[in-house]
Amino acid sequence: MNTPALVNSALVEPKKTPIIYKIMVMVSIIVFVGGSLTGIMTYTNVGITEHFYIDWFTSFLSAVLVMAPVGLAMTALMNALVAKLLPKASELKRNLVISVFMALTMESLMAFVTATNNIGFANMRLFYTAWVEGLLAALPIGLTLMLVISVTVKPKLERFLKS
Fold first, then answer.
1. pLDDT digits (tens, 9 = 90+) for 34-74
2. In whole angstroms, what is the distance from residue 71 CA to residue 64 CA?
3. Alpha-carbon Rg of the chain, whole angstroms?
């Protein structure tokens, strides 16, 4: 009766998710959110022209190159700041505050990058108008996406990325 039980290590130790899966999920989210918002902003800036797809794609690439490092830093800062300022708030409330602030900040920066790419700085009044109009056109969609993501996707995404 005292025979040692052999335990299958696969049953005891959960399998780690391959890093490539984590990268693919994050890239998919970035493409979906960034692509749709820069598409709206590009359409607002220049309309549908024969160069629309090139204008959109270069705006998207520029935004991703700017947004990726800024987004990572802002997310970490916002999580720490909101946790410190609202320690007794539920995780849902903290996520909602973070998502609204992040949507406003990141979309403003994305609209700036898109207007820079599509309009340039030659005429500052035209640039400013394009920046504000792009931001206002994409803001309702961006806020909706961020709220849905923060309430439904973020908790699952955090567990997935930790696995």
1. 999 999 999 999 999 999 999 999 999 999 898 888 888 88
2. 10
3. 21
